[in-house]
Amino acid sequence: MNKKQFDKEVARRRTFGIISHPDAGKTTLTEKLLLYGGAIQEAGAVKNNKIKKGATSDFMEIERQRGISVATSVLAFEYKNIKINILDTPGHKDFAEDTFRTLTAVDSVIVVIDVAKGVEEQTVKLVEVCRMRNIPMIVFINKMDREGKDAFDLMDEIEQKLGLRVTPLSFPIGMGYDLKGIYNIHKQNINLFTGASSKDIHSTTAIENLDDKLLDQLVGDKAAGILRDELELVTGIYPNFNREEYLAGDLQPVFFGSALHNFGVKELLDGFIEIAPAPRPKKAEERLVQPNESDFSGFVFKIHANMDPKHRDRLAFIKIVSGVFERNKAYKHIRLNKNLKFSSPNAFFAEKKEIVDESFPGDIVGLHDTGNFKIGDTLTSGETLHYKGIPAFSPEHFRYINNSDPMKSKQLAKGIDQLMDEGVAQLFTLELNGRKIIGTVGALQFEVIQYRLEHEYGASCSYENLNVYKACWIETKDVNSAEFKDFKRVKAKFLAHDKRDQLVFLADSSFSLQMTQQKYPSIKFHFVSEFEPMEA
Ligand code: G4P
């Protein structure tokens, strides 16, 4: 492949994630997007990737979910000659850490908001991570077929609660029972809502301008009048869309629609492929790497254990940052300083995976792994690069983990080690006595760990409660050494090391954290394991 063809392949890729609070419509929207790509034939093909309410301790359910989450990890399809890779993000809040890591591998995101519920808790957290990384975001306001909040109020709420600066690229004509259609501000056309089958691809009607009488004929005098007034307001209040600002993460375009009725989805998709970024450069510790450099590099953002406990191989998901990834070619695993070849790299197409010979920047390949990979590892054609930006966030729940079967301590250690590499939870080792503490985002993970240790490693563990409020990573740059010495002595009981051997302070309450910060002002406490401003 010559350079020109390679550049073309890079330029036609769009890798993104859809984020939302559970139930806002992420799964439904994903499915409709796949429908446009012809990747699936009918709605209902993408299985629901969420843990059903009330089933949290049903392990069959957990296993089922793990199976689905492999199948839907990456959904790739072609639309108008653009190769689209959707990276799936679990909606359940107990798996938020997984979502945060997946966000290191996307080049942009679509934020789905339920028009009736407005901005919800999970959306706030996820958008904050995207903002920290300046990830370009498009907002999709869903469920316009239902009564919900006024469009202006909702955009206000988005600006206030999510800290975004929005500008609508489409605007609803009515809502709920009265939803007449969507006006595409950018293209100046109207998509009429017929409430018809979700398989229909709606046609749009172009109008000359807003004074066009056709508008009144199409939606009625009253609705046309309201729309004219509202659009005047839009022009008065919101900035003009500017792609540079969107790409820099400074401006977020808004689309309206109903995923369930496949309405406004085509506008969203067409808008998306027009403005969303192709693979972006990525910062390694050594330098900034451009996607169209000829040498291959990529990093592991997700590891999935094999569903079959007899074969303990795993699938490591690599985001390709630069160059072409080729089957059977030796690549350097930087952390292990070892060359590895992959005879059956998987690429993902909608719901199936296939072995592929070549993949390009923006693509995700799944590599079979027998324990070589950890989340965050870098693979290159030879150059020493370390990709940055797969931080750990402070867990919310902490428990001591104890071995319940002394004959199986080796199995337990190995199991814990591998599950932590997969990113199921975080392990902290107390400095004082070497006791091991597991930290998780949700209580559900403790059960998952116990279950998997038993079924995949033949080890058994028990937990012991521990009162920790937050894990704070300690930054000692510019630290006063006497102060640090005193801190280490006084707080010895609360100090631990994470898997990367970074020093962590386990604060037992927000009050004690505040007091500690006041007492030791030269020490910096972070809720995230990486301190420098993050960049995608
Ligand atoms: P999630 O992945 O974000 O968690 O949400 P999901 O797509 O599963 O949607 C959650 C619920 O909202 C589903 O209903 C879905 O049918 C509904 N929904 C999604 N988009 C729209 C929309 O545009 N309009 C309306 N009215 N509803 C929408 P459910 O009853 O919970 O599940 P199901 O039995 O229909 O799958």
Automatic annotation (TrEMBL):
<dbReference type="InterPro" id="IPR005225">
    <property type="entry name" value="Small_GTP-bd"/>
</dbReference>
<dbReference type="GO" id="GO:0016149">
    <property type="term" value="F:translation release factor activity, codon specific"/>
</dbReference>
<keyword id="KW-0547">Nucleotide-binding</keyword>
<keyword id="KW-0648">Protein biosynthesis</keyword>
<dbReference type="InterPro" id="IPR041732">
    <property type="entry name" value="RF3_GTP-bd"/>
</dbReference>
<dbReference type="GO" id="GO:0005525">
    <property type="term" value="F:GTP binding"/>
</dbReference>
<dbReference type="InterPro" id="IPR032090">
    <property type="entry name" value="RF3_C"/>
</dbReference>
<comment type="similarity">
    <text>Belongs to the TRAFAC class translation factor GTPase superfamily. Classic translation factor GTPase family. PrfC subfamily.</text>
</comment>
<dbReference type="GO" id="GO:0005829">
    <property type="term" value="C:cytosol"/>
</dbReference>
<dbReference type="Pfam" id="PF00009">
    <property type="entry name" value="GTP_EFTU"/>
</dbReference>
<feature type="binding site">
    <location>
        <begin position="142"/>
        <end position="145"/>
    </location>
    <ligand>
        <name>GTP</name>
    </ligand>
</feature>
<dbReference type="InterPro" id="IPR031157">
    <property type="entry name" value="G_TR_CS"/>
</dbReference>
<dbReference type="GO" id="GO:0006449">
    <property type="term" value="P:regulation of translational termination"/>
</dbReference>
<dbReference type="GO" id="GO:0016150">
    <property type="term" value="F:translation release factor activity, codon nonspecific"/>
</dbReference>
<keyword id="KW-0342">GTP-binding</keyword>
<dbReference type="GO" id="GO:0003924">
    <property type="term" value="F:GTPase activity"/>
</dbReference>
<feature type="binding site">
    <location>
        <begin position="20"/>
        <end position="27"/>
    </location>
    <ligand>
        <name>GTP</name>
    </ligand>
</feature>
<dbReference type="Pfam" id="PF22042">
    <property type="entry name" value="EF-G_D2"/>
</dbReference>
<dbReference type="InterPro" id="IPR027417">
    <property type="entry name" value="P-loop_NTPase"/>
</dbReference>
<dbReference type="InterPro" id="IPR000795">
    <property type="entry name" value="T_Tr_GTP-bd_dom"/>
</dbReference>
<feature type="binding site">
    <location>
        <begin position="88"/>
        <end position="92"/>
    </location>
    <ligand>
        <name>GTP</name>
    </ligand>
</feature>
<dbReference type="InterPro" id="IPR038467">
    <property type="entry name" value="RF3_dom_3_sf"/>
</dbReference>
<dbReference type="InterPro" id="IPR053905">
    <property type="entry name" value="EF-G-like_DII"/>
</dbReference>
<feature type="domain" description="Tr-type G">
    <location>
        <begin position="11"/>
        <end position="282"/>
    </location>
</feature>
<dbReference type="InterPro" id="IPR004548">
    <property type="entry name" value="PrfC"/>
</dbReference>
<dbReference type="InterPro" id="IPR035647">
    <property type="entry name" value="EFG_III/V"/>
</dbReference>
<keyword id="KW-0963">Cytoplasm</keyword>
<protein>
    <recommendedName>
        <fullName>Peptide chain release factor 3</fullName>
    </recommendedName>
</protein>
<dbReference type="InterPro" id="IPR009000">
    <property type="entry name" value="Transl_B-barrel_sf"/>
</dbReference>
<comment type="function">
    <text>Increases the formation of ribosomal termination complexes and stimulates activities of RF-1 and RF-2. It binds guanine nucleotides and has strong preference for UGA stop codons. It may interact directly with the ribosome. The stimulation of RF-1 and RF-2 is significantly reduced by GTP and GDP, but not by GMP.</text>
</comment>
<dbReference type="Pfam" id="PF16658">
    <property type="entry name" value="RF3_C"/>
</dbReference>
